Each structure stands twice: as structure tokens, then as C-alpha cells.
């Protein structure tokens, strides 16, 4: 979970204790180890990862039998190509396992409630290009 979110939950006396699992995006991360560590402390997992990482984690959860008694809450931060989409199946060998695990997934998706935000989106596009060398595709929202 994001550090700010963890602090908010820690400060709420009505919220049960948290067990944040540090997730480092590198070539060595292992979904099985991540799930084994987290499952020793919780049955509800809040995930803020890109679509490929979520697919890997949920597939491993299915392979480990982490079905009905586990709940996965995913936060779809943006609709941009590098983040991916949580609702896309790839028609591969993983899909059958994923479809079963998806019965326990809640996806929270941020929407853009402001219709006339052209200047703001232009600013985001400029920042993405100048700071991160990322160019939004024609159909991507900023």
C-alpha cells in the first residue's frame, strides 16, 4: 500500500491493525513470496500496481489456492498504456485461473468528473513528456 494510505489507516482507531508488505518493482520480485508473507497476516489485500503486476500476483494467488476466503482490492490509477488495464484477459494459459480469482476482486477506478479540464490535461501531458519522457497516445487521457 502507499505510505500515505498506511498512515491514514494507522491513525484511525476503528480500523484493524495493518500489515503493509513492501513491494519493490525490480526484476527479482516474487509474487509467491509476496503472497505468502501477506497471507500470514491478512485475507484482504489492497493493491496499487500496474496491470501486468496485478495479473502476475492474482495468477499466483490462484495457483496457491487463495480463492474464496481472500479479497483483492485494486486501485486503477489511470487509463494510460504503461499502466495497463485490469479488466483485460490475454487469451493465454493464465486466463482460466485468473477468471476464478477475479470473482474476489474489487477494482476501484478513478474517473475524471471535470468535463472542461483541457488546460489541466495539457499541463499533465507536458509534465509527462518533459519530466519522464512519456508521450500520451492519442486516445489516452492525461
TrEMBL record:
Pfam families: ANF_receptor. It is found in: Membrane. The keyword Membrane applies. Residues 31-115 form the Receptor ligand binding region domain. Coiled coil: none annotated. Keywords: Membrane, Transmembrane, Transmembrane helix. It comes from the Eukaryota. This is Receptor ligand binding region domain-containing protein.
Amino acid at each position: 500500500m502507499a505510505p500515505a494510505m498506511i498512515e491514514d489507516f494507522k491513525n484511525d482507531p476503528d480500523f484493524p491493525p495493518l500489515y503493509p508488505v513492501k513491494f519493490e518493482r525490480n526484476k527479482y520480485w516474487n509474487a509467491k513470496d509476496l503472497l505468502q508473507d501477506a497471507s500470514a497476516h491478512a485475507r484482504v489485500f489492497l493493491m496499487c500496481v500496474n496491470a501486468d503486476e496485478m495479473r502476475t500476483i492474482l495468477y499466483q494467488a490462484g495457483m496457491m489456492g487463495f480463492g474464496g476466503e481472500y479479497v483483492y482490492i485494486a486501485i486503477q490509477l489511470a487509463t494510460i498504456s504503461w499502466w495497463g488495464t485490469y479488466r483485460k484477459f490475454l487469451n493465454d494459459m493464465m486466463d482460466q485461473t485468473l477468471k476464478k480469482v477475479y470473482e474476489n476482486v474489487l477494482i476501484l477506478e478513478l474517473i475524471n468528473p471535470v468535463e472542461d479540464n483541457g488546460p489541466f490535461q495539457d499541463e499533465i501531458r507536458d509534465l509527462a513528456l518533459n519530466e519522464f519522457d512519456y508521450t500520451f497516445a492519442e486516445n489516452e487521457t492525461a
